Amino acid sequence: MQSAPGQICIIGLGYVGLPLAVAFGNQRPTLGFDIDTGRVSALRAGDDQTREISATELADASQLELTADPDAIAAATIYIVTVPTPVDASHRPDLRPLLAASRTVGAVLKPGDLVIYESTVYPGATEEDCVPVLEAQSGLRFNQDFFVGYSPERINPGDKTRRLADIIKVTSGSTPKVADQVDALYREVVTAGTHLAPSIRVAEAAKVIENSQRDINIALINELAMIFNRMGIDTEAVLKAAGSKWNFLNFRPGLVGGHCIGVDPYYLTHKAESLGYHPDILLAGRRLNDGMGSYVAHAMIKAMLKRGLPMQRARVLVMGLTFKEDCPDLRNTRVIDVVRGLEDYGLSVDVHDPHADPDTARTTLGLELVETPEAGAYDGIILAVAHAEFRQLGGDEIRAYGTPDALLYDLKYILPPEASDLRL
């Protein structure tokens, strides 16, 4: 079955929505909508601050129109919602952006329209939380007047090899006919192919366990790193040795942040607890990974004390702030836990990140980034993010930021073992 004709509207133009809008904008009439007028203006000028889409790609999407006007989206017949689904300070799902987007769509929904959600949610959220909003706002009846699909996003920020078209897309729909329609729609832009799930709830569950599985595996490696550090064994050497077996999973220790791995498991644990089940393994993995920033700060302090460095006036340079390498995204970065942990001990901390936006760091994290670290000034240096710029520097140039006795803590295995004093 061929996908339905008509104009597509992408709701939310962030890391997920913009690549999708550009892909469809190369194929058919497409509207890209975002409530952030500044974001829309920048994109019209060819400037994508997420660095996922180039100015040339934006210009080449000849059938894409960008708008911040909610009235302008009424002409669409297919709406794809790609807004964030964060957690609050208590790690509870925050559905406010998703429900607000549903109200925006519901206000213009017409008989025969299709609404597809891509935002990561717990199983059941699309039909139990979003559909009632669409019905209430539009006065239309679900699966009679309008229909719904779910196709979880799989965007990997900063990855220039595996992009939207290169990643198999899971699809689903509220009826078998709609499921086929949703599947055909995505096959227009995803050359890697699609996987049609038997229900929306299956598709929702598949997405939320992708990152939960990774979170648990990284938590295991983080715990092993803590054990091996106490034993004086190099964790990377252990992982390389174990990795010589064909079925050993290649995970590395580190800080677990971002808008996926550090968030998605809480959606599943929330749903499980609402059903009366306490998810021990999922929550244990989250607790361990959320505590890694404090562990790193404590390890650095302990090593500095052992070396006899002047703690009351010590300065530390943290290299990298974004949640992953070669990406400007600061959402849910756990590097901030390292910074605050060091500051709690009274240390002066400078943070340097060539990819992070200084204004965003200031307004969201309360940090003033250092554009150029001071040579020979720091008693400790922490390599927190494996940006290409840091990899290119090498151990000697990085150590040049420190005093002669400075400690170098390599969290990302950027340097050879002998080039650093501490490693995870």
Write the layout of secondary structure elements.
Layout: E1 8-11, H1 17-25, E2 30-33, H2 37-44, H3 55-60, E3 64-67, E4 78-81, H4 96-106, E5 114-117, H5 125-138, E6 147-150, E7 169-171, H6 176-187, E8 194-196, H7 200-231, H8 235-242, H9 264-274, H10 280-290, H11 292-307, E9 315-319, H12 335-344, E10 348-352, H13 358-365, E11 378-383, H14 388-399, E12 402-410, E13 422-423
Parallel strand pairs: 1-2, 1-4, 2-3, 4-5, 5-6, 7-8, 9-10, 9-11, 11-12, 12-13
Major sheet description: 6 strands, parallel
Distance between the termini: 52 Å
- Share of residues in helices: 25-40%
Coarse structural class:
alpha/beta
| Strand order, sheet with most strands | 3-2-1-4-5-6
Q: Could you report the average pLDDT, rounded to the nearest whole number?
A: 95
Which stretches are low in confidence, meaning pLDDT under 50 for 5 or more residues running?
Answer: none
Question: What is the gyration radius calculated from CA atoms?
Answer: 23 Å
Q: Helices and strands, in N-to-C order?
A: EHEHHEEHEHEEHEHHHHHEHEHEHEE
Secondary structure tally: strands? 13
Give the percentage of residues in beta strands. 5-15%
- Helices, by number, come to 14
- Which outline best applies? globular
Please describe what this structure looks like.
The protein has 424 residues and is α/β, with parallel strands linked by helices. The chain has helices at residues 17-25, 37-44, 55-60, 96-106, 125-138, 176-187, 200-231, 235-242, 264-274, 280-290, 292-307, 335-344, 358-365, 388-399, and strands at residues 8-11, 30-33, 64-67, 78-81, 114-117, 147-150, 169-171, 194-196, 315-319, 348-352, 378-383, 402-410, 422-423. It has a 6-stranded parallel sheet, with helices on both faces. Helix 1 links the parallel strand 1 and strand 2 (30-33). Helix 7 packs across helix 9, helix 7 (200-231) crosses helix 10 and helix 11 crosses helix 12 (335-344). The longest helix is centred in the middle third of the chain and has 32 residues, at 200-231.
